[in-house]
């Protein structure tokens, strides 16, 4: 789960809503901080059928490749609710797009040192601009 | 103590079961066994003999685990016949002069085909139908003759065997007529009404039938061999080949000559423990006259084998009686009879349902209170056979008539079989044994249940019931075996295909709203729907909502590799490529730094392309005259070919030209799983075509086509579908085969398991694609014609559409920045992806400018 230091939060406009095809993902590069050092992190953005935009890490913790934006978007019933999901194009693990939680590890372990769950980013859509809350960097 | 010596005379099905059971149970090795077999091969599956015509080789008919014959306690003497038994000295003498002393002797000599007395029975072209050598000779004779004239076949005998033989002649292209002495076909099993319905079904296959026809003479052809047969009423019929299937007689000569009691109609008399009147001699199988009769079915033979083994090991088993239920194994004709089919029980009631037009006749024989099932006859639709047969002697729930109505009619109540009901009569497996295998022994698929219980491994007629029992039991265990595609669709892929096709739907939203349960699909149903729509309502993979359904491979029209890069394969139809083409491909690979490798399907695969490079690479390839090779799709992958008659010294047909033509015809055809084809220019098979879903091998008369082969995890050899086709017929046959597969296979099911699953197996597929038994061929032909006409190169269409090209940006906010995590290191003169450790060093400290 994301923990954001309020002071360091910046709303970064990454694209227009119409740049995102519905029910598919695209990748974006956003500024980030790792151990207080500025880096670029790859984010996967998904636009759902109702135009909600959700953002999770593009890095697939199970295959160690940056591919999650290329997964198939769908839904899965969890506690009588249809949760929006993406399935890794590499080995089919399924993740909850809202929380990043891994719903189905497909019998595999993440690569060493990685959590099976995904990091998420808060997203706003303002006047057609898609904005991501990013840490540090562009501020 | 030295093991005692068991000698078994006869190496047939029952002998095999006996040895198997003995080695299974005699764990202390108290017996060693010698089997004297007249036939020059190991015991084989005689019941499946007719499948030899469907391209099966003798090895495919092998029974059980071949390791049995390597057991040190087992000796198989092949090609030597027992000619005398000296019971006083307990010695068997073989034709070769060898002698075998025994502690116990088992006669398992089976039967021989009986040839009624008639003039000319010894002419060339008169065959019996009992052994592999018989059918191999028959096949050779007919194929040789077919080169010079249309072959007309006559089968003497309209019973189970005669009809099977007629089917075999038909498969060989000889036009068969069945001559039956009795009033109707299969008179030993079905009544007159059933026989009439059966005749109509058989006629429909192109097999002629004459009843009350006794053959008195076989007359020679002026060019040698048989030419005609003459009936008792003087009628003469043209016949180039005659198959005699007039019944069998026990091979009881060893018993007779050594003074054992023989039954009134032949057969070595045994008691309920299978012992003859000599305590050191047993008889089992068709040669045994047990409870007053010889039984011409394998199931009672197997029971006798088990009883004998039990007795040899000191047990007390007895032969309880025979189940004489039978089902005809003739593709396209469904006939079964079981229990008291002729209503011979006093007071028995018959419930009959007949549809003379459809050729359906069904009868149940019930006890006088109409509650207990005594037997039945099913002609034209024997789907209820597997579940009704085990109910014989038990009360049927509800109205018996409900079981006779066509499927989907009133709906017969579900039969909950008691544990002791026999499900597989060939192998004597009860419902309880199957439930136990599933619940206790962890057999969770049909293959496991079959190998664990032996159910369904002989004639196969019980398989639907075995499947159903397994599914019910798995359901109880909480294991779902529903054919539902995924949580979003309760339909199976095949059902959904039909539903979508018939309803004429074009988008995923329509499909999920109409046939889905809830939600917006997943990585299972979305690609499945994409694949269905691709052949029911063709459109580009990235058109509108279609784009959301594609796996990444289809979405970017390249193959995802482990590091997130892709590989690119341009089409080289038939594996043919010009020098210019090769140079162009080489230049592309060099300019983009791609690793190149030759694939098993005769293509050049270029690895390490980033998503944002794909359109640039395609541009170059398309300009050089290439197109997408669909290496990424669940679709036609490749048609591999050998060089064929244009260059090869041995070639008899132009395999490359055919391969190119086929590849251009089926390119882009989306299917449940990948499809591969192969074409070889002669029988040397250099293209390894029989390892393909469709394999074509040239003959000097045309093409043989094999289906259901694959490599991979469970390699399979393709089986013969049809022989010596001209090119036009060949193409039409493959068209239909592929589309029938596309329509009815499960998702991710290759052709081999599909053929096993689909109604009627390979015979069923043949009936559909060659004889149009489902009446869908016109539709299939039309669908393929549309596919061929509508084909467009997906790469080029993408290059021509700026909207589609947007999907290939590496980052939406930095479209020209390559994925910074990708890193390559040199190896053997090319590149390979860096390992995690190497990458940590190579990609550290990336800094990039970002649009904001
Ligand atoms: C085409 C066909 C289809 C059939 N379909 C069915 C079916 O669907 N269902 C069913 O239940 N049954 C079917 N049967 C019958 C079934 O095959 C037999 O019931 C079964 O094979 C009997 O087994 P057996 O071991 O008693 O005899 P066999 O399998 O005939 O074996 C006897 C063997 O003993 C050998 N032999 C004989 N004498 C000697 C000797 N003196 N020395 C050495 N060897 C000797 C013979 O060469 C033969 O190999 C079919 C039979 C045929 C031909
Ligand atoms: S299969 Fe026959 S024609 Fe083809 S290359 Fe081999 S030998 Fe030559
Ligand atoms: S009934 Fe023949 S295999 Fe089961």
UniProtKB/TrEMBL annotation, chain A:
InterPro entries given in the database record: NirD, Rieske-like_NirD, Rieske_2Fe-2S_sf
PROSITE patterns: NIRD
Rieske-like [2Fe-2S] domain residues: 10-132
Sorted UniProt keywords: Nitrate assimilation, Oxidoreductase
Protein name: Nitrite reductase small subunit
Organism: Cellulomonas phragmiteti
From TrEMBL, chain B:
Pathway annotation: Nitrogen metabolism; nitrate reduction (assimilation)
Transmembrane segments: none
Domain Nitrite/sulphite reductase 4Fe-4S: 633-771
Domain BFD-like [2Fe-2S]-binding: 423-471
Chain coiled-coil ranges: none
Limits of the NADH-rubredoxin oxidoreductase C-terminal domain: 325-390
Xref: PROSITE patterns: NIR_SIR
InterPro entries per record: BFD-like_2Fe2S-bd_dom (IPR007419), BFD-like_2Fe2S-bd_dom_sf (IPR041854), FAD/NAD-bd_sf (IPR036188), FAD/NAD-binding_dom (IPR023753), FAD/NAD-linked_Rdtase_dimer_sf (IPR016156), NasD-like (IPR052034), NiRdtase/SiRdtase_haem-b_fer (IPR005117), Nit/Sulf_reduc_fer-like_dom_sf (IPR036136)
This protein's name: assimilatory sulfite reductase (ferredoxin)
Organism of this sequence: Cellulomonas phragmiteti
């Amino acid at each position: 789960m994301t923990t954001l230091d309020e002071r360091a939060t910046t709303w970064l406009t990454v694209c227009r809503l119409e740049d995102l095809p519905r029910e598919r993902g695209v990748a974006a590069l956003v500024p980030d901080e790792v151990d207080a050092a500025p880096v670029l992190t790859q984010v996967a953005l998904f636009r759902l059928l109702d135009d909600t935009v959700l953002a999770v890490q593009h890095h697939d913790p199970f295959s160690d490749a940056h591919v999650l934006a290329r997964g198939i978007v769908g839904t899965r019933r969890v506690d009588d609710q249809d949760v929006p999901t993406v399935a890794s194009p590499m080995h089919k693990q399924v993740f909850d797009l809202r929380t990043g939680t891994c719903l189905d590890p497909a019998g595999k372990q993440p690569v060493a040192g990685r959590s099976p769950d995904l990091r998420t980013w808060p997203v706003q859509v303002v006047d057609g601009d898609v904005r991501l809350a990013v840490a540090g960097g562009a501020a | 103590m030295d093991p005692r010596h068991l000698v078994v005379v006869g190496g047939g099905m029952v002998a095999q079961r006996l040895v198997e059971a003995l080695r299974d149970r005699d764990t202390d090795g108290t017996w060693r066994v010698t089997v004297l077999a007249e036939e020059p091969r190991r015991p084989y599956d005689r019941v499946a003999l007719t499948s030899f015509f469907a391209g099966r080789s003798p090895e495919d008919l092998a029974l059980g685990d071949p390791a049995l014959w390597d057991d040190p306690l087992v000796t198989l003497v092949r090609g030597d016949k027992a000619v005398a038994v000296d019971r006083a000295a307990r010695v068997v003498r073989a034709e070769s002069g060898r002698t075998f002393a025994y502690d116990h002797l088992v006669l398992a000599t089976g039967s021989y085909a009986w040839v009624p007395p008639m003039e000319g029975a010894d002419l060339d072209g008169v065959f019996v139908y009992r052994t592999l050598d018989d059918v191999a000779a028959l096949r050779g004779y007919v194929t040789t003759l077919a080169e010079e004239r249309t072959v007309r076949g006559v089968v003497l005998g309209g019973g189970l065997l005669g009809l099977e033989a007629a089917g075999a002649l038909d498969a060989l292209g000889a036009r068969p007529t069945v001559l039956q002495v009795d009033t109707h076909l299969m008179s030993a099993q079905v009544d007159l009404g059933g026989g009439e319905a059966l005749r109509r079904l058989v006629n429909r296959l192109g097999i002629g039938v004459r009843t009350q026809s006794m053959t008195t003479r076989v007359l020679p052809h002026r060019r040698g061999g048989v030419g005609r047969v003459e009936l008792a009423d003087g009628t003469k019929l043209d016949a180039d080949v005659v198959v005699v299937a007039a019944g069998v007689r026990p091979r009881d000569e060893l018993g007779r000559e050594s003074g054992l009691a023989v039954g009134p109609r032949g057969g070595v008399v045994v008691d309920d423990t299978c012992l003859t009147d000599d305590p050191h001699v047993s008889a089992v199988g068709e040669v045994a006259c047990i409870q007053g009769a010889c039984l011409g079915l394998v199931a009672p033979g197997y029971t006798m084998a088990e009883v004998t083994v039990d007795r040899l090991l000191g047990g007390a088993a007895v032969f309880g009686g025979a189940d004489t239920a039978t089902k005809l194994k003739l593709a396209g004709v469904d006939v079964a009879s079981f229990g008291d089919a002729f209503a011979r029980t006093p007071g028995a009631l018959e419930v009959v349902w007949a549809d003379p037009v459809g050729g359906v006749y069904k009868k149940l024989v019930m006890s006088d209170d109409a509650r207990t099932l005594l037997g039945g006859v099913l002609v034209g639709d024997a789907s209820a056979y597997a579940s009704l047969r085990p109910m014989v002697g038990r009360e049927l729930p509800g109205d018996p008539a409900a079981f006779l109505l066509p499927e989907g009619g009133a709906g017969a109540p579900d039969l909950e079989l008691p544990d002791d009901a026999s499900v597989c009569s060939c192998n004597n497996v009860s419902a309880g044994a199957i439930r136990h295998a599933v619940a206790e022994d962890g057999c969770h698929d049909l293959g496991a249940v079959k190998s664990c219980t032996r159910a369904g491994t002989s004639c196969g007629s019980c398989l639907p019931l075995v499947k159903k029992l397994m599914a019910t039991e798995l359901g109880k265990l909480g294991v779902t075996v529903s054919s539902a595609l995924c949580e979003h669709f309760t339909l199976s892929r095949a059902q959904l295909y039909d539903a979508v096709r018939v309803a004429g739907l074009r988008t995923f939203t329509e499909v999920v709203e109409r046939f889905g349960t809830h939600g917006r699909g997943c990585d299972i149903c979305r690609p499945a729907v994409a694949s269905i729509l691709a052949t029911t309502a063709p459109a580009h993979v990235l058109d509108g909502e279609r784009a959301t359904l594609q796996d990444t491979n289809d979405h970017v029209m390249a193959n995802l590799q482990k590091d997130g890069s892709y590989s690119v394969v341009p089409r080289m139809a038939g594996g043919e490529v010009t020098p210019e083409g090769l140079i162009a491909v080489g230049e592309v690979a060099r300019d983009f730094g791609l690793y190149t490798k030759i694939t098993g399907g005769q293509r050049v695969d270029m690895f390490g392309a980033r998503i944002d490079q794909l359109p640039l690479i395609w541009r170059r390839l398309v300009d050089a005259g290439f197109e997408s090779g669909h290496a990424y799709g669940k679709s036609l992958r490749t048609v591999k070919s050998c060089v064929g008659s244009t260059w090869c010294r041995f070639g008899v047909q132009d395999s490359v030209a055919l391969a190119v033509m086929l590849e251009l015809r089926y390119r882009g055809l989306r299917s449940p799983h990948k499809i591969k084809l192969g074409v070889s220019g002669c029988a040397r098979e250099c293209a390894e075509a029989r390892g393909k879903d469709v394999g074509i091998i040239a003959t000097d008369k045309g093409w043989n086509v094999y289906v259901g082969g694959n490599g991979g995890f469970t390699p399979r050899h393709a089986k013969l579908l049809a022989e010596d086709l001209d090119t036009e017929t060949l193409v039409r046959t493959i068209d239909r085969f592929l589309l029938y597969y596309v329509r009815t296979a499960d998702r991710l099911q290759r052709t081999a398991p599909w053929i096993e699953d689909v109604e009627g197996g390979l015979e069923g597929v043949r009936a559909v694609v060659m004889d149009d038994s489902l009446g869908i061929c016109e539709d299939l032909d039309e669908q393929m014609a549309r596919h061929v006409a509508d084909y467009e190169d997906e790469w080029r269409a993408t290059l021509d559409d700026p909207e589609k090209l947007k999907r290939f940006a590496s980052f939406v906010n930095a479209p020209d920045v390559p994925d910074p995590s990708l890193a390559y290191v040199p190896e053997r003169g090319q590149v390979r992806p860096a390992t995690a450790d190497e990458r940590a060093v190579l990609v550290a400290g990336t800094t990039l400018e970002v649009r904001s």
